[in-house]
């Protein structure tokens, strides 16, 4: 790269590098937004990324969350006892049966009159563990605080329960303090169960329209921004350009740095000390901010589990100091499955790069088993090569989507075969490798796995194509398609003369956006994972330069795509253990793991040698899959290298919320009016079968029991048996806690 050009590139990037390395995105403005693929109008005046704790002023409000600190879910089977929550909540059939068994165990100690008066109350109270707001009802939104013994009850409901059923308190909780002070003192009892926010106490929480509207759907703020959360998965990476998996049931993640190193991350989150591949002495990469050259692509053979083959795409300089792109095949070591054989490289294809930018870099295998290669147009600005540019020249391999068969050699001496149905095989001047053309610099493409049930969408190729100076676009790649560059940019003409003379069957983007929204698209993935059912079918992508995250949803009737912003780190929606409130600004790449979970990589300083890159995983706080549905059983991996445990650097939202205030007004208690027991000394509930008869009497044992009040019998009657109820029944109060490379824009 010559010096004047280098200075221009650095000026472009440095205009967006106002923050020191390591500083994260919090909240930022923008001047536009497109909500439809039908055009490129931008009407929205602001970006709606709630990344700052200031987005939610005041105390932490309740949000749907279960007692195991996860989001609620749709039970896979019918609930026979806590039927109010059979469509959405925190109980599966096993938990429902357990609660039912507990209910009948308690009712065995209550006389017939008590059954009529108290049965409904006791069932309601026990079933609050199934409520989608269970964590709030039990003060369990923060793992650092002890659970309530009983859920928060609204004042009137609590008073009614106490008046009729105070004798049952000792059966519902083993908290000695509550038993001794509250059986005869309604005011103290209801004060203990009081919730600061009256909307969330039971039964008000069931009647609150705002809390139950769209419950279980992806949360949107008032401006339509999707509320998602993040967890930090890895950090300290030098421009992480990609993450891939080998589809070998080991669930390892291979993360590549721009300098030419691939790291192995294991399912437990640890990283192996020794890299899978280190070719930094071959790869052409520099510390210059925004330099696009380096290690750019990695794809594992569909049969990697059996043949150990994988493919790489990187920049290098030959002996004559000519810059080139090389695509090679390599194999895994025969002595260590976590290391590549450094001597196994087989060169498949080399392309001379006329400029230092627009290097492409994506490799992937389609559902047809062929390898797709995405090349840039050769660089500079406006694709100035030849009469129509490289992208429109089918005799050139730059500015193309190529498709080859790596499982053989051609009769012409190529180290690969040409698929027989490639679209330009019969065109004399066209290269047979070309599958689609007219692309500028597609940065990050992905294959849609298809709907998990219907398989709809399976095999579609989504790509983000970086624009020149007006529009960024998202494309779906089809065989023989012309994507318009340099005649078009987005939906509009770029080269007016060429545009007016171009064919009418150019493939238009499914979505394009202008500079009011972002400057450099980073293509993403269609979510098809198991953990977050709400996200199924959403295409999630971002903008490299300003850190904006976006999603596209297809309207199946019109085949149009609707765009929405994604908000990260909202302190109300994301107040779960491990969730973070910010991320590094420059979004380099997206990825999915073997199970379909979705990630992205970003850095706070886009230099190939700067260790400021991180890997983040998306989480939907509104709904998860039922417990056990997504349970993974990774094939064990023998490791010879030392495992380095993951050490998070980003503070979680709960850590930030729990930081003590700098000052506290004198005399003001931090208590919310609820007496809590120490987490280490929390009283355990004694099973009713072991409660002495005397403990079942009201505290005012010498007084006459008011008429129509429930009486607790001193002698247990015969147990009532319930079908489909588990034999082991936990006490009600013993609820447990399950504790790019950087792409420079052409100037």
UniProtKB/TrEMBL annotation:
Keyword presence, Ribonucleoprotein: no
GO cellular component, one term: extracellular region
Sequence ranges assigned to domain Folate receptor-like in this UniProt record: 78-226
Main location group: secreted
Span list, region Disordered: 656-747
InterPro entries, per the entry: 6-blade_b-propeller_TolB-like, Folate_rcpt-like, Glc/Sorbosone_DH, Quinoprot_gluc/sorb_DH_b-prop
Subcellular location: Secreted
Bias (Low complexity) ranges: 668-678
Alphabetically ordered keywords of this record: Disulfide bond, Glycoprotein, Secreted, Signal
Domain Glucose/Sorbosone dehydrogenase: start-end pairs: 237-566
Biased composition (Basic residues): 704-724, 737-747
Keyword field contains Glycoprotein: yes
Family recorded in the similarity comment: Belongs to the HHIP family.
Record protein name field: HIPL2 protein
Organism per entry: Nothoprocta ornata
Lineage: Eukaryota, Metazoa, Chordata, Craniata, Vertebrata
Gene: Hhipl2
